[in-house]
# Entry
Amino acid sequence: MAELTKPGTIERDRLIAWALGTFHAGVLLITLILLLHVTGGLASLLGGLNTASGLALFAVLWVTTVWSTHRTLQGALGPALQNEIPIYQLVGRAVWRGGINGAAFLGGAGLILAIPIVLSGSRSAIYSLFVGALFFATFGLVGAFVVGCMVGLLFAGIDALLLMATRAVLNSR
Amino acid sequence: MDPLHLLVRWAHVAGMAAILGGALLVWWLAARRPPLEERVTARVAEGYEWIFWAAIGLQVMTGVGNLGAFGNALPPPESAWGTKLTIKLVAVLLLAVFSVPRTLVVAARSEADTTPHLSLPLLYGSTTVIVIGILGLAVWLAHG
# Structure
Protein backbone atom coordinates (compact mmCIF):
# COMPACT_ATOMS: atom_id res chain seq x y z
CA MET A 1 0.00 0.00 0.00
CA ALA A 2 2.99 2.29 0.47
CA GLU A 3 3.21 2.58 -3.32
CA LEU A 4 -0.17 4.29 -3.39
CA THR A 5 1.12 7.32 -1.57
CA LYS A 6 3.83 7.99 -4.15
CA PRO A 7 2.99 11.09 -6.23
CA GLY A 8 3.93 9.23 -9.42
CA THR A 9 1.44 6.47 -8.65
CA ILE A 10 -1.37 8.92 -7.84
CA GLU A 11 -0.75 10.78 -11.10
CA ARG A 12 -0.53 7.45 -12.97
CA ASP A 13 -3.85 6.27 -11.55
CA ARG A 14 -5.54 9.55 -12.50
CA LEU A 15 -4.35 9.17 -16.08
CA ILE A 16 -5.50 5.53 -16.21
CA ALA A 17 -8.95 6.41 -14.79
CA TRP A 18 -9.29 9.29 -17.27
CA ALA A 19 -8.27 7.06 -20.21
CA LEU A 20 -10.35 4.01 -19.26
CA GLY A 21 -13.39 6.08 -18.24
CA THR A 22 -13.36 7.93 -21.56
CA PHE A 23 -12.74 4.63 -23.37
CA HIS A 24 -15.79 3.04 -21.70
CA ALA A 25 -18.14 5.97 -22.38
CA GLY A 26 -16.90 6.46 -25.96
CA VAL A 27 -16.88 2.79 -26.97
CA LEU A 28 -20.34 2.27 -25.45
CA LEU A 29 -21.81 5.16 -27.45
CA ILE A 30 -20.02 4.31 -30.74
CA THR A 31 -21.12 0.67 -30.44
CA LEU A 32 -24.74 1.72 -29.87
CA ILE A 33 -24.57 4.17 -32.82
CA LEU A 34 -23.01 1.46 -35.02
CA LEU A 35 -25.67 -1.12 -34.08
CA LEU A 36 -28.48 1.40 -34.66
CA HIS A 37 -26.93 2.42 -38.00
CA VAL A 38 -26.56 -1.10 -39.41
CA THR A 39 -30.09 -2.03 -38.28
CA GLY A 40 -31.53 1.14 -39.85
CA GLY A 41 -32.79 2.70 -36.60
CA LEU A 42 -30.34 5.60 -36.33
CA ALA A 43 -32.11 8.13 -38.58
CA SER A 44 -35.38 8.02 -36.61
CA LEU A 45 -33.48 8.39 -33.31
CA LEU A 46 -31.47 11.36 -34.59
CA GLY A 47 -34.63 12.96 -35.99
CA GLY A 48 -36.13 13.05 -32.50
CA LEU A 49 -33.04 14.29 -30.61
CA ASN A 50 -32.09 17.90 -30.05
CA THR A 51 -28.34 18.58 -30.65
CA ALA A 52 -27.79 20.46 -27.36
CA SER A 53 -29.55 17.72 -25.37
CA GLY A 54 -27.49 15.03 -27.16
CA LEU A 55 -24.23 16.81 -26.32
CA ALA A 56 -25.29 17.28 -22.68
CA LEU A 57 -26.35 13.62 -22.36
CA PHE A 58 -22.94 12.39 -23.53
CA ALA A 59 -21.20 14.90 -21.24
CA VAL A 60 -23.12 13.44 -18.27
CA LEU A 61 -22.26 9.86 -19.31
CA TRP A 62 -18.60 10.85 -19.71
CA VAL A 63 -18.35 12.50 -16.27
CA THR A 64 -20.16 9.72 -14.39
CA THR A 65 -18.16 7.00 -16.17
CA VAL A 66 -14.76 8.59 -15.47
CA TRP A 67 -15.79 9.06 -11.83
CA SER A 68 -16.98 5.44 -11.44
CA THR A 69 -13.84 4.12 -13.20
CA HIS A 70 -11.69 6.16 -10.83
CA ARG A 71 -13.52 4.67 -7.81
CA THR A 72 -13.22 1.13 -9.25
CA LEU A 73 -9.47 1.39 -9.80
CA GLN A 74 -8.58 3.02 -6.46
CA GLY A 75 -5.64 1.03 -5.08
CA ALA A 76 -6.20 -1.77 -7.59
CA LEU A 77 -2.94 -1.47 -9.53
CA GLY A 78 0.51 -1.73 -8.02
CA PRO A 79 3.98 -1.20 -9.51
CA ALA A 80 4.25 -2.11 -13.21
CA LEU A 81 0.42 -2.40 -13.33
CA GLN A 82 0.34 -5.62 -11.29
CA ASN A 83 -2.90 -6.46 -9.42
CA GLU A 84 -2.90 -5.20 -5.83
CA ILE A 85 -6.28 -6.77 -5.04
CA PRO A 86 -7.72 -10.19 -6.05
CA ILE A 87 -9.28 -10.23 -9.52
CA TYR A 88 -12.72 -11.35 -8.21
CA GLN A 89 -12.76 -8.31 -5.92
CA LEU A 90 -11.88 -6.00 -8.80
CA VAL A 91 -14.60 -7.52 -11.02
CA GLY A 92 -17.08 -7.16 -8.12
CA ARG A 93 -16.13 -3.48 -7.79
CA ALA A 94 -16.52 -2.95 -11.55
CA VAL A 95 -20.02 -4.50 -11.51
CA TRP A 96 -21.12 -2.47 -8.46
CA ARG A 97 -19.66 0.79 -9.79
CA GLY A 98 -21.18 0.07 -13.21
CA GLY A 99 -24.58 -0.16 -11.54
CA ILE A 100 -24.04 3.10 -9.62
CA ASN A 101 -22.91 4.71 -12.88
CA GLY A 102 -26.07 3.53 -14.68
CA ALA A 103 -28.28 4.99 -11.96
CA ALA A 104 -26.26 8.26 -11.81
CA PHE A 105 -26.46 8.64 -15.59
CA LEU A 106 -30.22 8.09 -15.56
CA GLY A 107 -30.58 10.77 -12.88
CA GLY A 108 -28.46 13.24 -14.87
CA ALA A 109 -30.26 12.39 -18.12
CA GLY A 110 -33.63 12.89 -16.40
CA LEU A 111 -32.57 16.36 -15.25
CA ILE A 112 -31.35 17.34 -18.73
CA LEU A 113 -34.54 16.15 -20.40
CA ALA A 114 -36.68 17.84 -17.70
CA ILE A 115 -35.16 21.33 -18.11
CA PRO A 116 -36.86 22.24 -21.43
CA ILE A 117 -40.19 20.86 -20.14
CA VAL A 118 -40.01 22.98 -16.98
CA LEU A 119 -38.95 26.05 -18.99
CA SER A 120 -41.92 25.55 -21.34
CA GLY A 121 -44.23 26.40 -18.39
CA SER A 122 -46.97 24.08 -19.69
CA ARG A 123 -48.93 22.71 -16.69
CA SER A 124 -49.92 19.48 -18.44
CA ALA A 125 -46.30 18.88 -19.53
CA ILE A 126 -45.03 19.51 -15.99
CA TYR A 127 -47.67 17.12 -14.60
CA SER A 128 -46.54 14.44 -17.09
CA LEU A 129 -42.94 15.15 -16.06
CA PHE A 130 -43.84 14.64 -12.39
CA VAL A 131 -45.50 11.28 -13.15
CA GLY A 132 -42.52 10.32 -15.32
CA ALA A 133 -40.10 11.32 -12.53
CA LEU A 134 -41.89 8.98 -10.11
CA PHE A 135 -41.45 6.14 -12.60
CA PHE A 136 -37.78 7.09 -13.15
CA ALA A 137 -37.11 7.27 -9.40
CA THR A 138 -38.35 3.71 -8.87
CA PHE A 139 -38.38 1.21 -11.77
CA GLY A 140 -36.11 3.36 -13.96
CA LEU A 141 -33.29 3.51 -11.41
CA VAL A 142 -33.49 -0.24 -10.73
CA GLY A 143 -33.39 -0.97 -14.48
CA ALA A 144 -30.49 1.46 -15.02
CA PHE A 145 -28.60 -0.12 -12.10
CA VAL A 146 -29.02 -3.64 -13.55
CA VAL A 147 -28.00 -2.56 -17.06
CA GLY A 148 -25.04 -0.64 -15.56
CA CYS A 149 -23.93 -3.78 -13.68
CA MET A 150 -23.94 -5.80 -16.92
CA VAL A 151 -22.03 -3.10 -18.82
CA GLY A 152 -19.55 -2.88 -15.91
CA LEU A 153 -18.98 -6.65 -16.10
CA LEU A 154 -18.46 -6.48 -19.88
CA PHE A 155 -15.93 -3.66 -19.61
CA ALA A 156 -14.14 -5.40 -16.72
CA GLY A 157 -13.50 -8.31 -19.12
CA ILE A 158 -12.35 -6.02 -21.95
CA ASP A 159 -10.07 -4.03 -19.59
CA ALA A 160 -8.54 -7.25 -18.23
CA LEU A 161 -7.63 -8.31 -21.79
CA LEU A 162 -6.17 -4.88 -22.60
CA LEU A 163 -4.19 -4.93 -19.34
CA MET A 164 -2.77 -8.34 -20.28
CA ALA A 165 -1.75 -6.94 -23.68
CA THR A 166 -0.07 -3.98 -21.94
CA ARG A 167 1.89 -6.23 -19.58
CA ALA A 168 3.07 -8.23 -22.59
CA VAL A 169 4.34 -5.00 -24.21
CA LEU A 170 6.03 -3.88 -20.98
CA ASN A 171 7.77 -7.26 -20.61
CA SER A 172 8.90 -7.34 -24.23
CA ARG A 173 11.97 -5.11 -23.84
CA MET B 1 -25.76 27.43 -40.54
CA ASP B 2 -26.89 27.13 -36.90
CA PRO B 3 -24.06 28.49 -34.63
CA LEU B 4 -24.22 25.35 -32.44
CA HIS B 5 -23.70 23.06 -35.47
CA LEU B 6 -20.83 25.29 -36.61
CA LEU B 7 -19.22 25.03 -33.14
CA VAL B 8 -19.71 21.25 -33.16
CA ARG B 9 -17.99 20.94 -36.56
CA TRP B 10 -15.13 23.22 -35.50
CA ALA B 11 -14.59 21.20 -32.29
CA HIS B 12 -14.63 17.94 -34.30
CA VAL B 13 -11.91 19.20 -36.66
CA ALA B 14 -9.88 20.76 -33.79
CA GLY B 15 -10.02 17.49 -31.82
CA MET B 16 -8.79 15.52 -34.83
CA ALA B 17 -5.93 18.03 -35.32
CA ALA B 18 -4.88 17.58 -31.67
CA ILE B 19 -4.94 13.78 -31.96
CA LEU B 20 -2.94 13.65 -35.20
CA GLY B 21 -0.53 16.50 -34.42
CA GLY B 22 0.24 15.14 -30.96
CA ALA B 23 0.81 11.58 -32.21
CA LEU B 24 3.20 12.87 -34.89
CA LEU B 25 5.08 14.95 -32.31
CA VAL B 26 5.54 12.08 -29.82
CA TRP B 27 6.45 9.66 -32.64
CA TRP B 28 9.14 12.08 -33.82
CA LEU B 29 10.44 12.66 -30.28
CA ALA B 30 10.55 8.91 -29.54
CA ALA B 31 12.16 7.92 -32.85
CA ARG B 32 14.66 10.79 -33.42
CA ARG B 33 18.39 10.12 -33.47
CA PRO B 34 20.28 11.30 -31.49
CA PRO B 35 17.57 10.83 -28.84
CA LEU B 36 16.26 13.74 -26.80
CA GLU B 37 16.72 13.76 -23.03
CA GLU B 38 14.77 10.67 -21.92
CA ARG B 39 12.45 12.33 -19.42
CA VAL B 40 11.35 14.96 -21.94
CA THR B 41 9.89 12.35 -24.31
CA ALA B 42 8.19 10.55 -21.41
CA ARG B 43 6.65 13.81 -20.12
CA VAL B 44 5.42 14.88 -23.56
CA ALA B 45 3.93 11.40 -24.15
CA GLU B 46 2.14 11.55 -20.80
CA GLY B 47 0.75 15.02 -21.59
CA TYR B 48 -0.37 13.76 -24.99
CA GLU B 49 -2.31 10.86 -23.41
CA TRP B 50 -4.37 13.31 -21.30
CA ILE B 51 -5.11 15.40 -24.41
CA PHE B 52 -5.73 12.32 -26.60
CA TRP B 53 -8.54 10.97 -24.38
CA ALA B 54 -10.08 14.43 -23.95
CA ALA B 55 -10.08 14.73 -27.75
CA ILE B 56 -11.52 11.22 -28.19
CA GLY B 57 -14.43 12.11 -25.87
CA LEU B 58 -14.91 15.34 -27.81
CA GLN B 59 -14.77 13.47 -31.15
CA VAL B 60 -17.47 11.02 -30.04
CA MET B 61 -19.66 13.82 -28.68
CA THR B 62 -19.31 16.08 -31.72
CA GLY B 63 -19.38 13.17 -34.17
CA VAL B 64 -22.84 12.22 -32.97
CA GLY B 65 -23.72 15.93 -33.07
CA ASN B 66 -22.65 16.03 -36.74
CA LEU B 67 -24.80 12.97 -37.49
CA GLY B 68 -27.66 14.66 -35.64
CA ALA B 69 -27.60 17.46 -38.23
CA PHE B 70 -28.81 14.87 -40.80
CA GLY B 71 -31.80 13.90 -38.66
CA ASN B 72 -34.27 11.72 -40.57
CA ALA B 73 -32.34 12.42 -43.81
CA LEU B 74 -29.41 10.20 -42.70
CA PRO B 75 -28.56 7.89 -45.65
CA PRO B 76 -29.39 4.19 -45.02
CA PRO B 77 -26.61 1.69 -44.13
CA GLU B 78 -26.85 0.00 -47.59
CA SER B 79 -26.00 3.26 -49.42
CA ALA B 80 -22.39 4.09 -50.38
CA TRP B 81 -22.31 6.86 -47.74
CA GLY B 82 -23.82 4.54 -45.12
CA THR B 83 -21.12 1.92 -45.83
CA LYS B 84 -18.39 4.56 -45.43
CA LEU B 85 -19.92 5.59 -42.09
CA THR B 86 -19.92 1.96 -40.92
CA ILE B 87 -16.22 1.60 -41.86
CA LYS B 88 -15.36 4.88 -40.10
CA LEU B 89 -17.16 3.88 -36.88
CA VAL B 90 -15.36 0.50 -36.84
CA ALA B 91 -12.01 2.27 -37.44
CA VAL B 92 -12.65 4.65 -34.51
CA LEU B 93 -13.46 1.65 -32.28
CA LEU B 94 -10.17 0.02 -33.34
CA LEU B 95 -8.27 3.24 -32.56
CA ALA B 96 -9.82 3.38 -29.07
CA VAL B 97 -9.02 -0.29 -28.35
CA PHE B 98 -5.44 0.08 -29.63
CA SER B 99 -4.91 3.28 -27.62
CA VAL B 100 -5.65 1.79 -24.18
CA PRO B 101 -2.45 -0.34 -24.04
CA ARG B 102 -0.45 2.61 -25.41
CA THR B 103 -1.73 4.88 -22.62
CA LEU B 104 -1.12 2.17 -20.01
CA VAL B 105 2.48 1.70 -21.19
CA VAL B 106 3.09 5.46 -20.90
CA ALA B 107 1.35 5.58 -17.50
CA ALA B 108 3.43 2.67 -16.18
CA ARG B 109 6.61 4.46 -17.24
CA SER B 110 5.48 7.80 -15.73
CA GLU B 111 5.07 6.03 -12.37
CA ALA B 112 8.67 4.85 -12.50
CA ASP B 113 9.74 8.22 -13.96
CA THR B 114 12.56 6.57 -15.87
CA THR B 115 13.43 6.05 -19.51
CA PRO B 116 10.68 5.85 -22.11
CA HIS B 117 9.88 2.33 -23.23
CA LEU B 118 11.52 1.03 -26.40
CA SER B 119 8.08 0.36 -27.94
CA LEU B 120 7.08 4.07 -27.93
CA PRO B 121 8.10 4.75 -31.59
CA LEU B 122 6.10 1.70 -32.72
CA LEU B 123 3.05 2.61 -30.58
CA TYR B 124 2.96 6.25 -31.71
CA GLY B 125 3.83 5.38 -35.31
CA SER B 126 0.91 2.93 -35.39
CA THR B 127 -1.39 5.53 -33.80
CA THR B 128 -0.40 8.06 -36.47
CA VAL B 129 -1.09 5.58 -39.29
CA ILE B 130 -4.53 4.62 -37.87
CA VAL B 131 -5.47 8.30 -37.33
CA ILE B 132 -4.42 9.21 -40.90
CA GLY B 133 -6.61 6.33 -42.12
CA ILE B 134 -9.58 7.68 -40.12
CA LEU B 135 -8.89 11.18 -41.43
CA GLY B 136 -8.97 9.81 -44.99
CA LEU B 137 -12.31 8.12 -44.24
CA ALA B 138 -13.65 11.38 -42.78
CA VAL B 139 -12.66 13.35 -45.90
CA TRP B 140 -14.18 10.61 -48.10
CA LEU B 141 -17.38 10.78 -46.03
CA ALA B 142 -17.54 14.59 -46.12
CA HIS B 143 -17.39 14.56 -49.93
CA GLY B 144 -20.28 12.13 -50.25
About this structure: Residues 3-142 of chain B form one domain.
